[in-house]
From TrEMBL:
BP-aspect Gene Ontology terms: actomyosin structure organization
Domain FERM: 1-218
Stretches with biased composition (Polar residues): 264-273
Entry's Gene Ontology cellular component terms: cytoskeleton
PANTHER family in UniProt: 4.1 G PROTEIN, FERM DOMAIN-CONTAINING PROTEIN 3
Organism whose genome encodes this protein: Eschrichtius robustus
UniProt cross-references to Gene3D superfamilies, sorted A to Z: 1.20.80.10, Pleckstrin-homology domain (PH domain)/Phosphotyrosine-binding domain (PTB) (2.30.29.30)
Stretches with biased composition (Basic and acidic residues): 254-263
Region (Disordered): 254-273
Protein name stated in the entry: FERM domain-containing protein
Record SUPFAM superfamilies: PH domain-like, Second domain of FERM
Amino acid sequence: MFGTAHPPYTMCFRVKFYPHEPLKIKEELTRYLLYLQIKRDIFHGRLLCSFSDAAYLGACIVQAELGDYDPDEHPENYISEFEIFPKQSQKLERKIVEIHKNELRGQSPPVAEFNLLLKAHTLETYGVDPHPCKDSTGTTTFLGFTAAGFVVFQGNKRIHLIKWSDVCKLKFEGKTFYVIGAQKEKKAMLAFHTSTPAACKHLWKCGVENQAFYKYAKSSQIKTVSSSKIFFKGSRFRYSGKVAKEVVEASSKIQREPPEVHRTSITQSRSSHSLNKQLIINMEPLQPLRPSPSEQEEELPLGEGEYTSFQSLALQAYPGGMREAPTLGTLVNGLG
């Protein structure tokens, strides 16, 4: 599992299924863990947003981890000491300082973290783990799965959202992934091409898991699915675990003393953060999900130019591939 690594080992956990409504998270510890994941998504360019939203999210992070603005403790350009975004211009830093000084004063860490979650969950790329592929025209596309349904992005724009209730079947054959949906009694099929059969199978499994988790009311309704109509041919897979509605219901019944929250401070050293990122890269699963160099597109500015496309940012953050750290646990399965 660890290859040539030596102890002490660094274990990286991440959120697998993002809560659709952070308001329903009961315990502060769970909200804090989700906050850490969102902060990570922001730094790695996975959560795309406008300039104004980026400034607000950045200010929430600063407020949560530094507290109220204090001219004696926070000199000019104090934001530049911290790495919050993959591309952090002086203009963005000045806007973060403005919001931190004037709008968030008095907010405790839990309140600032909660406000970040409320903003983040409204963004189109909230919870999206982008899978690179090509559509039927050969255009580079990114597929993802959210609580709302199956999503398709080109550059930084969402071009498709198929709700889980409208998704009839997910399947794959070789390097081609298919989504069969139905709207107003009409069926349609979308086809996407991945770099390898292994990447395609991984994409299919992610889709099956997300559909089962978000679509069904009870885990007992989940059935084993096959990638092929032919019996004993193709891959068979079944999601095992609670579904979203069961998790929310179970969390509402929790009766215990709230767990203590041990918060970590914001990263100040760029070199130390680079080391942490390298540790994560070294632990990536060997999923061949990165497009070839010929498939890479130019960066496309979004809003005021602080964010670019999924492809350019994701490849910068993960030179070893598009996937993040291995999925070792699921936050919402312990939703409190």
